Amino acid sequence: MLTIRRPEARNAVNADVAKAIEAGLDRLESDSEVWIGVVSAEGPVFSAGADLKAIAAGEGLTLYTERGGFAGITRRDRIKPLVAAVDGPALAGGCEIVLACDLVVASTSASFGLPEVKRSLVAAAGGMFRLPRALPPAVAMELILTGDPISAERAHALGMVNELVAPGEALTAALALADRICANAPVAVRESRGVAIAAHTADDETLWRMTEEAMTSAARSEDFAEGPRAFIEKRPPVWKGR
């Protein structure tokens, strides 16, 4: 689990946060015993985005990492799923951290927004193209151009949030969702995720090829025979993840 811990600064991203998130993702990707990650935050705000004090001090570039982009995550190439547990406002870069994750669990105290235009800025960490993928285009355009936030309830109704829970329960619910995913074959999950992500931008010919490659990878894994065997033997499968 990756937890942003700067509640005194509304969990704004500084150099330490960016480096720590990248290091956490490194551990997630390299540890064969860990199949999924959860991104959460400490305190009443998920993240207010970039640390403006750091930017004012000329340290803006330190909020980015070479492989991960802003906060060490928004441009990170990875194969394992991430669930965002959002219990409080996720604004600007904070919203872009959420959008970089694969699934979102939010409490009713959460909200999402890209207020950059209110400060003569643009959402440069993926928000301008990921938000229109997560919300209906007209709604996403409204948020991007007005800078006004959307409530967790509305985001859930429109499909941006997978599960809506009471305040204080987002992390528990996100971990439960992660457990549901971990009940499945890890290689099949990772391969399926890759194709689903590409569906936003790739053409059908490319997606057919990727689907065939995904099936081949799953078939070559040690877990391929375990699924049918466990079904026949009427027991939970025991996955190896390779």
Structure description:
With 242 residues, the protein is an alpha/beta fold. It contains ten helices and ten strands. Strands 1-2-5-7-10 form a five-stranded parallel beta sheet, sandwiched between helices. Helix 3 crosses helix 4, helix 4 runs antiparallel to helix 5 and helix 8 runs antiparallel to helix 9. The radius of gyration is 19 Å and the shape is globular. The model has no long low-confidence stretch (mean pLDDT 96).
Tags for this model:
242 residues; alpha/beta; 5-stranded parallel beta sheet; 3-stranded mixed beta sheet; 43% helix; 14% strand; globular
Task: Kindly summarize this structure in a few lines.
The chain is 43% helix and 14% strand.
- Rg (C-alpha, Å): 19 Å
First-residue to last-residue Cα separation: 22 Å
Largest sheet strand order: 1-2-5-7-10
Strands, count: 10
DSSP strand content: 5-15%
Question: How many strands, which pairing sense, and closed or not: the largest β-sheet?
Answer: 5 strands, parallel
- Structural class by SSE content: alpha/beta
Helix content: 40-55%
Mean pLDDT: 96
Uncertain regions spanning at least 5 consecutive residues: none
SSE order in H/E notation?
A: EHEHEEEEHEEHHEHEHHHH
Number of helices: 10
Please state the overall shape, judged from the principal axes of the Cα atoms.
globular
Topology:
Layout: E1 2-4, H1 15-30, E2 37-41, H2 52-56, E3 64-65, E4 69-70, E5 82-86, E6 89-91, H3 93-100, E7 103-107, E8 111-113, H4 127-134, H5 137-146, E9 150-151, H6 152-157, E10 163-165, H7 170-182, H8 186-198, H9 204-220, H10 226-232
Parallel strand pairs: 1-2, 2-5, 5-7, 6-8, 7-10
Antiparallel strand pairs: 3-4, 8-9
